[in-house]
Give the backbone structure.
Amino acid sequence: MNIIDEEKLNSSFHARGSRISILEEAVSTNTMLKGLAREGAPSGTVLIALRQTGGRGRLGHSFESPAGGIYFSYLMHPKTSPEETAEITMCTAVYVRRMIIDLTGIEPDIKYVNDLLYKGKKLCGILTELIEGNLIIGIGLNVNNSSNGFPDELKDIVVSLSDLCGHELDLNEFAFGLVSAIDKLAASWPECKEEALTQYKKYCINPEKMYKENGAV
């Protein structure tokens, strides 16, 4: 079901105090949320698009965002430094991985620094940006956007949860799961960092790159 019920989702989090907005389409939820942050949006504000036309990945790479996926951006005002942004990205990967396991039983690998893979195919990408004290956590998760819907050059290197489960999934469950997961990360940062980074190293398939760029994490 490629629909997310905005009012039902917000009512599920009646005590969190920050709005979750669902968009049929966006150029980039991260870019939109940066603008809202400059206007004073509170920590915990979430934008979710059902499709993106100008999604971005790490190092400025484009991120294909066809209908059926969840394209999610979360605003944090963390006590952190620019140097810790990569660690928040890693912790995000751990929390999203747990959510996927809880909802599907599928156990993705982590590829440093910001991808979740299943048998070498990309399932999820994460882009974390720290601008003027505003931290934006962007997550693109392939749910019902079957690999058949991607451009030919990507069909063999991406996968969706519906491909792996063999049936269409309810986007509402994954929207709820993502908000819950990142709420938990935001509420427990930075105390959660040590345990989450231990999990990250356990499930990272290219730890040598992690150590090369960051030293002992």
